From TrEMBL:
Protein known as: Polyketide synthase
Domain Polyketide synthase extender module SpnB-like Rossmann fold per the UniProt entry, residue ranges: 1-54
Highest taxon listed in the record's lineage: Bacteria
Family annotation (InterPro entries): NAD(P)-bd_dom_sf (IPR036291), SpnB-like_Rossmann (IPR055123)
Native source organism of the sequence: Streptomyces chrestomyceticus JCM 4735
Amino acid sequence: MWGLVRSAQTERPGRVVLLDLDEPGSLADLAGKVLAGGEPQTAVRAGTMFVPRLTTVPREPTESGTAHR
């Protein structure tokens, strides 16, 4: 199902939102807030919104003293 939604998001940017709720009954309370955020994908856990982000992670040296490539 997620793949189908992502395809629809690609074809119609800004018109399809993927929303993952921990409590289905909370949709009415959160719909406006989620849509105002403008994110294509949002997860809501205990009333807090989470969106996917890529970040850099510092490399840690291995036992040989060099970082993995």
